[in-house]
Write a sequence for this structure.
């Protein structure tokens, strides 16, 4: 999934965000196939990640006559059905065909109801991919947040919900923040409620999942005045730099945290001393970790080869010291095999 | 079986001309099927004593396309002409072009597209692929352009030539331009202008239809001119047109004009 982050379906990207809100329903305004396909995909990936909650998705089930006469009535009907589930909010995501015929989705959603009904434009033929859907959904959902005075806590923004290691990465960032004595108040958006999302504007810092979400960070800082860090940390040095930057933005002295993390990193490096001089073939540098790979090469004096065992460079790259430790563990298994 | 399609700018007189052609042909003992391909759904009104018949798309919407039978969509009017209206959405919503495509699928499935002559009366500007449907898949092989001498009307006719030209070089496309019908606005030198236009695009002016108040009188009596005033000269013009269409064998791949050429042409006739 992750390697396709700039491709794929806009709708799927947005759903990976909206279905992570526990008490909301996502409507796909389109043919049943769009809903079926996305439901199956989300369900399969979440099942693989040991989450057994079914994604809350319903379809406006557009048929040919809806396309000819306009799909707005079908949308109004399915909003009614969604309301029967008593959600706290309804997200309406448009399919390609609804966008192509120009259904006035905002007008239908704009009718007065007692819960928010929010449009997220996701017509994939407009040229966006999975990642554009994620951004579109995050920006839309940010309107559900209220402003508040800074709590001293942080928000994690744009965790990759379909990623296998999403929770491992979350625990690592939480561990690092705990070294600074800081807590996560909201995972925007992962396994949270609408009440949680309301706290969006009161964080003292937003930490973006990766640099591709800088636009979302800018929206949040415009709206709530919250400063942000551009990405979860990767690499040993990157992790220390993350602690330093987070401390600086939060006005916390990070010296102690950095020292203790550095000591932990030395432990990890010693634990993998047997990898020294390992022959590796780096297949593709991948998006982020260029400097991280250089760092690892230096630490472990890897013998770079054109052939030989080729360890996977995971994409997305694992987060923090713990992420590196997991990756090195896998590399060791590979070269012992 | 002969299948003809009338295309032209909105309001130029396609439906008036189509219904009179159908009426005239039916009186020659031919089995005629007229299909209105315009969400305005008023193509066949004058053949149906002013009645707006239920449209194919309305029926599909109400009952689902599997439940529809031939009598639900085909209505017999003046002279036994069988009338069909595609129908479609209200202005400003949905996708009218898809409605035309869906209508053809229903008619195809019902085996409705059979007659001595099938007359397709199609919405003016071929705004999307759906409205080119009658020209595709071997339906109407003969396209008639309805135009007056007004620039905007010639402009629309010229655009339709572009569609005909594009479709004519497809393997399955047998659609050709069969001629230009001048439905006059009674402008000076109008016939000459439209004849010159027809010639320039590589076709011919097949018939000049005068502008005549008898058309409105017939309309107020909810009838075609053929039915309401069979002895009028206007009826003669429609009968002559019907006759020519029946025997016409000239089929051209048109060469649309550049916009500049078209303007110059129209200007030549207005200036003097
Ligand atoms: N030859 C004519 N003489 C007088 N009026 C005409 C003539 N042809 C068409 N009209 C009038 O023009 C109006 C529009 O014609 P119509 O056939 O409905 O156009 P279209 O089908 O191209 O939109 C009609 O109400 C009709 O009364
Ligand atoms: Mg008409």
């Amino acid at each position: 999934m992750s390697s396709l982050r700039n491709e794929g379906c806009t709708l799927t990207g947005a759903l990976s965000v909206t279905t992570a809100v526990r008490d909301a329903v996502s409507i796909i305004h389109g043919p049943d196939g769009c809903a079926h396909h996305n439901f199956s995909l989300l369900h399969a990936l979440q099942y693989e990640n040991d989450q057994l909650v079914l994604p809350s998705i319903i379809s406006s089930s557009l048929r040919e006559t809806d396309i000819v006469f306009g799909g707005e009535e079908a949308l109004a009907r399915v909003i009614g059905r969604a309301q029967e589930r008593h959600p706290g909010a309804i997200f309406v995501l448009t399919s390609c065909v609804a966008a192509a015929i120009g259904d006035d989705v905002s007008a239908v959603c704009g009718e007065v109801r007692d819960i928010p009904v929010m449009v997220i434009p996701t017509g994939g033929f407009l040229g966006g991919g999975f990642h554009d859907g994620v951004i579109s959904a995050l920006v839309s959902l940010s309107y559900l947040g209220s402003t508040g005075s800074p709590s001293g806590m942080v928000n994690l923004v744009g965790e990759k919900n379909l990623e296998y290691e999403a929770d491992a990465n979350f625990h690592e960032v939480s561990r690092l923040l705990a070294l600074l004595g800081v807590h996560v108040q909201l995972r925007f958006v992962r396994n949270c409620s609408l009440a949680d999302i309301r706290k969006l504007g009161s964080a003292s810092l937003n930490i973006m999942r990766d640099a591709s979400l800088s636009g979302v960070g800018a929206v949040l800082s415009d709206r709530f005045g919250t400063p942000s860090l551009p990405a979860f940390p990767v690499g040993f040095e990157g992790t220390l730099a993350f602690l330093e930057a987070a401390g600086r933005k939060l006005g916390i002295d990070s010296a102690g945290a950095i020292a203790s993390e550095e000591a932990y990193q030395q432990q990890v490096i010693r634990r993998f001393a047997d990898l020294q001089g390992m022959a590796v073939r780096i297949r593709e540098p991948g998006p982020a970790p260029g400097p991280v790979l250089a760092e690892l090469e230096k630490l472990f004096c890897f013998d770079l080869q054109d052939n030989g065992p080729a360890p996977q460079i995971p994409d997305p790259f694992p987060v923090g010291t713990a992420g590196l430790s997991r990756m090195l563990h896998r590399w060791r298994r590979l070269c012992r095999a | 079986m002969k299948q003809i399609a009338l295309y032209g700018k909105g309001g130029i007189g396609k439906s008036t001309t189509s219904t009179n052609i159908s009426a005239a042909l039916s009186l020659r003992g031919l089995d005629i099927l007229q299909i209105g391909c315009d969400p305005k759904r008023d193509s066949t009104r004058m053949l149906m004593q002013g009645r707006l018949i239920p449209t194919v798309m309305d029926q599909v919407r109400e009952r689902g396309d599997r439940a529809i039978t031939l009598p639900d969509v085909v209505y017999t009017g003046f002279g036994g002409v069988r009338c069909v209206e595609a129908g479609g959405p209200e202005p400003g919503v949905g996708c009218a072009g898809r409605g035309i495509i869906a209508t053809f699928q229903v008619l195809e499935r019902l085996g409705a597209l059979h007659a001595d002559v099938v007359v397709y009366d199609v919405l003016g500007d071929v705004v999307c692929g759906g409205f080119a449907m009658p020209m595709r898949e071997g339906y109407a092989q003969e396209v008639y352009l309805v135009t007056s001498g007004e620039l905007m009307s010639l402009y629309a006719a010229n655009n339709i030539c572009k569609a005909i030209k594009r479709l004519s070089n497809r393997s399955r496309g047998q659609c050709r331009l069969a001629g230009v019908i001048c439905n006059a606005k009674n402008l000076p030198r109008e016939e000459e202008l439209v004849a010159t236009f027809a010639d320039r695009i590589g076709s011919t002016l097949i018939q000049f239809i005068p502008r005549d108040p008898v058309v409105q009188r017939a309309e107020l009596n909810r009838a075609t001119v053929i039915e309401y005033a069979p002895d009028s000269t206007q009826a003669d013009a429609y009968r002559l047109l019907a006759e020519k269409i029946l025997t016409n064998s000239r089929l051209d791949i048109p060469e649309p004009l550049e916009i500049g050429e078209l303007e110059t042409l129209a200007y030549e006739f207005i200036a003097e």
